[in-house]
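Input sequence (47 aa), recorded before submission:
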Amino acid sequence: MNAATTRTALQVDDYLDLLNLAVKVGDMKWQKEIKSRLQYILCLQTR
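Predicted structure, token format:
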């Protein structure tokens, strides 16, 4: 893994942790924001 891939993987893991927290507290707006950010990261990786 190169440095950019490692950084992105850590970023995704962090966002998934935040998403789990948002689900636990029931914050739908926060969940939507996190999912949007994850989708953006996925789009950047598929270029």
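Checked by second reader. The mean pLDDT is 89.
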